[in-house]
Design a protein that fits this description.
Strand order of the largest sheet: 7-6-8-9-10-13-14-15-16
Radius of gyration: 48 Å
Oligomer: single chain
Number of helices: 24
Distance between the termini: 167 Å
Strand content: 5-15%
Shape: elongated
Length: 763
């Protein structure tokens, strides 16, 4: 193999030389000097085998022609084909710099090529404007003359997460190209964005660039057997096309499946022929947005179609995509930077490029301090249907979804507001994107040692061997919920005997580490604790004492306290556990415990059985409560929640609960050996009686005093009135007697005297 390497290198040099001999076809600009003279020479490295680079090559030629025409100056462009090979791209860069004397290089498209070309350019102080979308942050520190001429599109991962959230999908499978350097950046961004909306990536499928048909069928068959039906495709155009054609042949483009394609694949959908489009019906795509309504773009679009058709008649479609317009803007950036400076090349040209600020076909062209264009922030949501695709709307991090752009655009909270989506298989409703397989019934753990068996009861059926029967309110509600699901749901109940409800819930955790990883973590933490103890043992009193005490101190940031300990502040020695309702009742009656903390359903059952001896008291604490636990991000959650809501709204849940409580008879009256409920005596309320009696007595005395005073004042007034009347009446009587005595006497003195004496007596 080592003997063949010189021959391989010789063939590469021959290919490059051959390309240079045909440079007349790829050189723009006349050797004849115009009035303005030659501004400079520009180089470009492309891969003529890809549609994206074909568009870039035509667009760069058009840019140089427009510049020469508009400025009356001459800029020469040399283009070399790298065939997508990083080594050939590096050799092409050396050839352009040493032989063609170029002052700047445009391209290449991939980071593998760009890394080698950037090294050559920085060594010779030649700016390299790369079209690769995944330039690492550290690249400019190593290669200071590297400039990223394509915007970072990592925000599209947030757009994909927003799509997943809109339709309440919680699990996705990611299919990406093995060896693609962009995957190392894109996949973590997608994973983080999905976690932000409560979803997760359950499976990764890397595909080699030149995957065989048999291997692709094998991998898709494995995906077909999984339960997740949402696929995010991050592949090159050639590999993506092979994937969709194979998926269609395997009936994976039918109802129940969802496919979401990323840029740059979606930016080339316009170039696919009808055969490829037919295999992609219903695919959703996220692509970078470019405004096609401006006059400059319409003018460019019309000329590009004619030019592209002449140079690439083998293509079926001739309209420009994002690769064409960004290459046009990059070429214009270098051209104007060369015109601006009297000194061509080197650091001066790099500074002019980075100071560029103009309105291009892609929008505002302005580089940031890290020598990159600002990240793309507006993406278009497309839906493949018919002979092409339909533009559903837009998404931006600032505004979310919207049907249109501009000041009057109406923002939408969900993708569902953008209009009807054409899904694979053309279903009338949104796919659930999760289908339980018959080969993998869901295993449902049921606590075998339930305290209240009216809720959950597990019995072993002796007639059926080791089979178990499951009953109770929770079981019945779960079965009623499954009846409301829109699909068949295979499951099996598994009795759980190994601990508490907490330990049962722990069985469904998403396990982030392997067993060996957990062991290693424990060993490292113990070692770190030992080091701290060994160093600080003579300086910290807490680390002194017996060996048991020191070990306890070492492993103490590991205990997890229960709700009563942490929230309500109860001490461990004040908490007792009981396994049956009878034990609760006995402990309450004997005052072994002052109160029993029970969940609401259990409290209802307990009071139904002990209806006279106990009552509920105190606040109701809002905790997790009873329910059906699923792993976080389970695709079943939306369907189960919706079905359970239907059970509640239909009244079935209330009916089952009332049936359970009605079957529980009150045993307080008939229980033997237990004290009956005692009547309340005066001893329980003597203090209350004293208080109320005292208050009533004080009120009565106060009232009597007021009444006496009122009566006394009224009696005294009547007496004085009577005395006055008697006084004036007596005064009037005296005056009347004197008048009678003044009458002349006529008769016997004895009669007169006697009459006078009787009158006085009457008075």
């Amino acid at each position: 193999m080592y003997r063949l390497f010189p021959l391989y290198l010789f063939l590469i040099l021959v290919l490059i030389s051959t390309e240079n001999f045909t440079a007349a076809d790829h050189k723009i600009g006349s050797e004849t000097m115009k009035d303005g003279g030659v501004v400079g020479i520009l180089g470009a490295i492309v891969d003529n085998t890809s549609r994206a680079c074909k568009e870039e090559k035509v667009a760069m030629k058009m840019a140089i022609e427009d510049f020469n025409s508009n400025t009356n100056q001459t800029l020469i462009l040399h283009i070399i084909n790298s065939y997508g090979d990083p080594l050939q791209a590096a050799l092409a860069a050396r050839d352009l710099i040493s032989k063609q004397q170029v002052k700047a290089i445009l391209g290449p498209q991939t980071w593998e090529e760009t890394s080698l070309v950037a090294k050559v350019g920085s060594e010779n102080h030649v700016p390299v404007l790369s079209f690769a979308e995944d330039t690492p942050k550290w690249a400019n520190e190593i290669w200071p003359f590297l400039v990223q001429a394509s915007p970072d599109q990592s925000n599209q991962m947030k757009a994909i997460a927003a799509i997943v959230k809109s339709w309440e999908w919680f699990q996705v499978t990611v299919i990406y190209e093995e060896g693609d350097s962009s995957a190392s950046k894109v996949l973590p961004q997608l994973s983080y964005a999905l976690k932000e909306v409560g979803a997760e990536i359950t499976h990764f499928l890397p595909l080699p660039p030149f995957v065989s048909s048999s291997l692709l069928s094998e991998e898709l068959e494995r995906l077909k057997g999984n339960q997740t039906r949402v696929f995010v495709v991050h592949l090159s155009s050639s590999l993506g096309v092979s994937l969709f054609e194979k998926a269609k042949g395997m009936n994976m483009m039918e109802n129940g499946y969802v496919w979401i394609a990323t840029d740059p694949f979606t930016s080339l959908v316009h170039s696919f022929n009808s055969s490829i489009i037919s295999s992609m019906q219903g695919v959703l795509g996220v692509k970078r947005y470019i405004s096609e309504d401006s006059d400059p773009f319409r003018y460019f679009d019309n000329r590009f179609r004619k030019r592209f058709r002449l140079e690439h008649p083998e293509e079926d479609n001739y309209e420009p995509g994002i690769f064409a317009v960004q290459a046009y803007d990059a070429a214009m950036t270098v051209a104007y930077a060369m015109k601006k400076s009297s000194k061509l090349g080197g650091q001066n040209l790099l500074e002019n490029i980075l100071q560029s600020k103009f309105q291009g076909l892609t929008g505002k062209v302005e580089f940031s301090t890290n020598q990159k264009l600002p990240p793309a922030d507006i993406f278009q949501i497309i839906n493949v249907m018919g002979k092409s695709y339909r533009e559903l709307g837009f998404w931006s991090e600032k505004s979310g979804f919207s049907v249109s752009l501009g000041e009057n655009a109406k923002n939408c909270s969900s993708m569902g507001d953008l209009g009807q989506v054409f899904w694979p298989g053309a279903p009338t409703s949104t796919p659930k994107c999760w289908t339980p397989t018959n080969s993998k019934p869901l295993r449902i753990g049921v606590p075998n040692l339930s305290t209240f068996q009216k809720l959950v009861k597990v019995e072993q059926d002796n007639q059926l061997g080791n089979n178990f029967s499951f009953s109770g309110l929770s079981i019945e509600v779960f079965k009623e919920t499954l009846k409301k699901l829109p699909y068949n749901f295979p499951y099996e109940f598994i009795p759980y005997n190994d601990g508490t409800y907490d330990s049962l819930v722990e069985q469904i955790h998403l396990k982030p580490f392997t067993t060996s990883m957990w062991v290693f973590i424990v060993l490292v933490n113990v070692y770190n604790g030992f080091v701290v103890w060994f160093i600080e043992r003579n300086h910290c009193p807490e680390l002194k004492g017996s060996m048991i005490n020191q070990i306890g101190t070492l492993i103490w940031g590991s205990y997890v306290r229960s709700y009563l300990n942490e929230v309500l502040g109860f001490k461990d020695n004040n908490i007792k556990n009981f396994s049956t309702p009878e034990e609760h009742a006995k402990a309450l009656r004997s005052r072994e415990i002052a109160a029993a903390f029970l969940e609401v359903p259990l409290a209802k059952l307990f009071l139904a059985k002990h209806c006279k001896g106990f009552v509920t008291a105190g606040p109701t604490y809002k905790v997790g409560g009873f329910g059906y636990a699923f792993p976080r991000g389970s695709p079943m959650l939306p369907s189960i929640n919706e079905a359970l809501l239907k059970v509640c709204e239909s009244g079935k849940l209330l009916e089952l609960e009332e049936k359970m409580l009605a079957s529980e008879k009150c045993e307080d009256v008939d229980e033997e050996g237990e004290e009956s409920t005692k009547s309340l005596s005066i001893n329980s309320f003597w203090l209350l009686f004293i208080i109320t009696g005292t208050i009533s007595t004080i009120a009565l005395v106060f009232y009597l005093c007021l009444l006496y005073k009122s009566k006394f004042e009224q009696k005294n007034w009547m007496w004085r009135l009577m005395m006055v009347v008697m006084k004036y009446w007596g005064y009037g009587k005296g005056r009347f007697s004197r008048r009678v005595s003044d009458v002349p006497e006529s008769g016997r003195n004895s009669v007169d005297n006697g009459s006078d004496s009787h009158a006085h007596t009457l008075v």
